[in-house]
Amino acid sequence: MLDEASTRTIDDALLTRIDAWWRAANYLSVGQIYLLDNPLLREPLRAEHVKPRLLGHWGTSPGQNFLYAHLNRAIVQRDLDMIYLSGPGHGGPSLVSAAWLDGTYSEVYSNVGDDEEGLRELFRQFSFPGGIPSHVAPETPGSIHEGGELGYVLSHAYGAAFDNPGLIVAACVGDGEAETGPLATAWHSNKFLNPGTDGAVLPILHLNGYKIANPTVLARIPKRELEYLMVGNGYTPYWFEAGFDDEDHLSIHRRFAQLLDHALDQIASAQRDYRAGEYDHRPDWPMIIFKTPKGWTGPREVDGHLVENTYRAHQVPMSAVRGNEEYTRLLEQWMRSYRPEELFDDDGRLRADLRELSPSGPRRMSANPHANGGVLTRDLRLPDFRDHGVDVPVPGGAVAEPTRVLGEWLAGVIRENPSNFLIMGPDETASNRLSAAVSVSGKRWLGETLPTDDSLSPDGRVLEMLSEHQCQGWLEGYLLTGRHGLFNCYEAFIHIIDAMFNQHAKWLKVTREIPWRAPIPSLNYLLSSHVWRQDHNGFSHQDPGFIDHVVNKKADVIRVYLPPDANTLLSTYDHCLRSRDYVNVVVAGKQPGPQWLTMDEAVAHCTRGIGIWEWASTDGGEGEPDVVLACAGDVPTVETLAAVDLMRRHLPQLRVRVINVVDLMRLQDEGEHPHGLSDREFDALFTTDKPVVFAYHGYPWLIHRLTYRRTNHDNIHVRGYKEEGTTTTPFDMVMLNDLDRYHLVMDVIDRVPGLAAEQAVLRQRMADARLRARQYTREHGTDIPEVAEWAWPDARARGLPARTGEDTAADFEAAPGPVQGERTDG
């Protein structure tokens, strides 16, 4: 029951205007789906006025139009800073209608005016060649959530609310969408929302009963059961039901206005009391269960079949209207039921008193700057990454865990940006060696806290939930509203969010072509615990294929980096956090390994993105080499250099050129990717006719795909992951996939003209070395000393450590509790 003292009296005149605005939005929604011309029905509807192809979704639109009308009223009366996220699939007609009615649409699209001619263009462009999509898209003013991307509206909403203390995000959840795993998990985002420093999310479950062809689960469970579900998720649910009887519209509007006011009062009270220090526990935030008929106010019946409040209302209630006189008559009757002559003036503009119902300026949900986050973006204050670099006296002369080094720098980023930067991760931040970042502020948590817990804080700048979907969705919402962050994850499990990455990459691609959309901070991934170091997790944790998935997207948007050591990782991530409108995928190891480049060398190498390592090469820097050994990734780099060390000893006459790749997209042609090398540059590095043996972090065919146009492509032989692996030692893992140093030497012998016959004995020794290493591993459970204790010659000569073998207990930093262990779920 509502607290009567908290409700406000809303006079009938205002409710009448709200109802008229709702009718106008419904009219525009129908018009967008059906009409090419005659937008205000100034004449009887004829076949040529109707689109030949009817594409769109009507079912969710009237309910969302109703919500939008009432949220507008609340914004005006309370001076709220609010955005609206449309979760139901393809609610495009509703949000486009609202943006046109409040004037934003005509402001950003001058060809769609606010008069009858503009209305004609608004209708024509919808789901029409060269026009706009039927879903809520980047082209839709006020949107940060793409309609039809089912399951993520709450994740995006909470991401937008983090560190936005004055913002309320109204998140309309489709009841079909509510059946998805990500959405079912997203209800628990309220356990991470700090009432003191964050904004608020008002979830509205749009319970209209049907998906495309089936009823929805939540619409067919008892009311009490659904309410208990929401209470169990940590909300105070408020039930609203309308449209199923003959109740007059004013009464319906009055009931909802009172309920909405009550929910907003509850949000304001929770934030006020928490910020005043009157309590420190998590509030029971309100949410609304909004039950209305599918296709409310639309045709009740078509061809003898019920439409309203059935699945038939989901998309287009009447298809093939053009040329069907009965359907044309029914469409005109439907549209005239909204009484457009009462809503628009002689010029086709929305009536002045109805325009006044919308907020003004940036208070309009379609013009709110939070929904165009680039206009609010502030640059991060980044500490100098050089101050955190590893001292590398000679190549291979130091040992470090790259992500641990990065974690120390990220701790400084958090200190310098206490309300503008977040790290997301699915319970893997410590396992990925970023504990220094956790130590700065702790991990965000507003659930129950026990004395045995570690590093939990309502103000934490690291958000961990064992759901990659939530981490991705939160970060997207945070970035889209103008802030910065990164998502750290085990490499194999990042695939869980493949579809979400797809949508975000496509969003970025489209927004680059929309002048009024300002660039937003890039989406930054840090993938660690990667394919080559799954010593105890085994085959289930081995999959480097996210890179392949990412590379499918538009070249203007994606970037892939494989830094070989800590200093290159620092330089790479500094670049990523400064960038805009990209998806940056960085794969880096967390295990102790040799460090190759000084900080100055690392910066130069990262700036180039690809380069010859002269200190490792034996071609003297003059003339062409006999063979090129290329590498991309930390483990492939170690194996390549170890192979070069073997060749220096056994094939001293061989001219070897070593190339390391940090920026994977440098391999692609400059016409295909902005970072791509010209043919001239590529040929200078890889030659036009010499054999190339390429040791790559991921699936080998990606390198062929990136280089297939190159002059020397036929001579490029790639070693990489080929779906072989088990619970084993690090070196045995690379041997299983033929990426090991001995096999690379064998590849060189096989491919350099004349060597196969001359060096048959050496090749046999390399094959024997593989067998010896395998046997040692099976007997001792660890890698053979000649591998585990290997060091680059310059470091070896100085007696410097460069251990690359297995971890010991000492490799795990002392930290409270079991959080340093690795996630082992498959």
UniProtKB/TrEMBL annotation:
The UniProt entry's GO biological process terms, in alphabetical order, are: carbohydrate metabolic process
The Xylulose 5-phosphate/Fructose 6-phosphate phosphoketolase C-terminal domain extends over: 590-792
Q: Which UniProt keywords apply?
A: Lyase, Thiamine pyrophosphate
The protein's name? Probable phosphoketolase
Xylulose 5-phosphate/Fructose 6-phosphate phosphoketolase N-terminal domain: residues covered: 10-375
- Cofactor(s) demanded: thiamine diphosphate
Stretches for region Disordered: 801-826
Instruction: Reply yes or no: does the keyword Nucleus apply.
Output: no
Query: Per UniProt, what is one GO molecular function of this protein?
Result: magnesium ion binding
Q: Which family does it belong to?
A: Belongs to the XFP family.
**Annotated EC:** 4.1.2.-
InterPro entries cross-referenced by the UniProt entry:
Phosphoketolase, THDP-binding, Transketo_C/PFOR_II, Xul5P/Fru6P_PKetolase, Xul5P/Fru6P_PKetolase_C, Xul5P/Fru6P_PKetolase_CS, Xul5P/Fru6P_PKetolase_N
Top-level division of the source organism's lineage? Bacteria
